Amino acid sequence: MILYPNAKINLGLNVESKRSDGYHNISSIFYPIYDCFDVLEIVDSNSFLFTSSGICISGSNNLCVKAYNLLKIKFNIPAVHIHLHKKIPIGAGLGGGSADGAFVLKGLNNFFKLNITNKLLEDLALELGADCPFFIQNRPKYVSGIGDLMEDIKLDLSKYEIQLIDSSIHINTKDAYSNIVPKNQKLKLSRLIKKPIRLWKDLVTNDFEQDVFKNYPKLSKVKETLYAQGAIFSSMTGTGSVIYGIFKR
After folding, report:
1. Which of 85, 165, 181, 243 has the smallest CB count inside 10 Å?
2. What whole-number distance in Å separates Cα of residue 71 and Cα of residue 104?
3. How do residues 131-177 score in pLDDT, each as one tens digit?
4. % of the chain surpassing 90 pLDDT
5. Dihedral sign from CA coordinates of 152, 122, 2, 86
6. CB-based contacts of 61, cutoff 8 Å, min separation 6
């Protein structure tokens, strides 16, 4: 079985409050980017094995392994060999690791015909990480809570070109959140995103940009360059470091 876990971008990312459990309540639009992807292969094996190629990752504690172990415990599935060819940049805000974990859950569900519903897959994915449930249905969503509350949103950017600029800077998500100051938003992002894209520049914001750009001025320059090249909207995705630009085709 071959699978292609894809990236996502954040159209806006607002941190609204810090919770008593240490997590943060956020609001964001998650939008899938299908032409930026990893490659997963799942085959039968006498004993469980995980291997990888491409971008170097940890082999013993990554989300692919955790996803297999989760289903092994809950459904007693047989051993498999999972190979991941990693292409999505790490620490870039593209959700590549989350996608890998979620796609392993979906892949094993189909591989062993477990008939797990999407709702249960999302619950299982949440045990792997806050962004993982999004990749079960893998379509545009308005996301709130810690990333576990999702609503379908009508948003189609297929008529636009989305350019991803990777500066090869790894930004630790935990560190990014440690410096953030939550604030209440006057207007919900789910309403702002319905306005014409030409208005997003002044309305749709990523709260992490201010601090990340201060520490990595190079990223601010990338955003400025994308606007200079004609982008209708440009932003950092997630907690960074990839900057994307949306252009008319």
Report:
1. 181
2. 10
3. 999 999 999 999 999 888 999 999 999 999 999 999 999 888 888 88
4. 85
5. positive
6. none
Catalogue the active-site residues: 8, 131
Q: Which two tokens stand for residue 69?
A: 């172990």
- Tokens standing for 132? 């993982």
One-letter amino acid of 148: D
Residue 120: CB atoms within 10 A of its CB come to 15
Amino acid found at 126: L
Q: How far apart are CA 34 and CA 44, in angstroms?
A: 27
Question: CA-to-CA distance for 134 and 8, rounded, in angstroms?
Answer: 9
Nearest to 131 by CA among 5, 4, 3, 2: 5
What's the token pair of residue 194? 């319905």
Domains of the chain plus CATH, in order, are 2-151 (3.30.230.10), 155-248 (3.30.70.890)
Give 191-211 pLDDT, tens digit per residue. 999 999 999 999 999 999 999
- Taking the C-alpha atoms of residue 242 and residue 226, their distance in angstroms, rounded to an integer, is 12
Q: Strands 141-145 and 24-37: what pairing?
A: antiparallel
The continuous run of DSSP H or E covering 216 comes out as: none
The alpha carbon dihedral of 239, 244, 245, 248 has a sign of negative
Separation CA 9–CA 28 (nearest Å): 10
d(CA 39, CA 6): 9
What is the pairing mode between strands 233-236 and 243-248?
antiparallel
Q: What local confidence, expressed as pLDDT, does residue 244 receive?
A: 98
Would you call the peptide bond into 241 cis, given omega within 30 degrees of 0 as the criterion?
A: yes
Judged against a pLDDT cut of 80, whether residue 114 lies above it is answered with yes
Report the alpha-carbon distance of residue 153 to residue 140 in Å, rounded. 6
